[in-house]
Amino acid sequence: MLDETKPLYLAVAEQIEDGILDGTHQEDAPVPSTNELAAFLRINPATAGKGLNLLADAGVLVKRRGVGMFVAPGAITRLRQRRRDDFARDYLVPLLREAAHLGIEPRELTEMMEALQ
């Protein structure tokens, strides 16, 4: 369901993004309406709408007047790139900083990661 550690509208947006990335919502296909999301997730329709509008503002969804919201062409590529950038900023930069503090060379770090697979 929703990640309760973040604001609901962000969790709604992330859930739709996950559906786009895993193929549940195909490019150019409709996504659930504000009211459908609100009923299914048992949240306020305004909150669901805020999550959908966030994705529309980011170019992930497109609004078709009188029809609904649809996954924008190129949304998968855009989402993957943004999440890769976020991953590097949120995880790799701190990892490399800590590794440097511990005297772990990049080669050794790679070996450590390979051993965990």
Automatic annotation (TrEMBL):
Lineage: superkingdom: Bacteria
Signal sequence annotation: none
InterPro entries associated with the record: Tscrpt_reg_HTH_GntR, WH-like_DNA-bd_sf, WH_DNA-bd_sf
Keywords: DNA-binding, Transcription, Transcription regulation
Pfam family name, one: GntR
The keyword Transmembrane belongs to this UniProt entry's keyword annotation: no
Stretches assigned to the HTH gntR-type domain: 6-74
Coiled-coil segments on the chain, per record: none
SUPFAM superfamilies per record: Winged helix' DNA-binding domain
Tagged with keyword Glycosyltransferase: no
Gene Ontology MF annotations: DNA binding; DNA-binding transcription factor activity
Protein name as annotated: GntR family transcriptional regulator
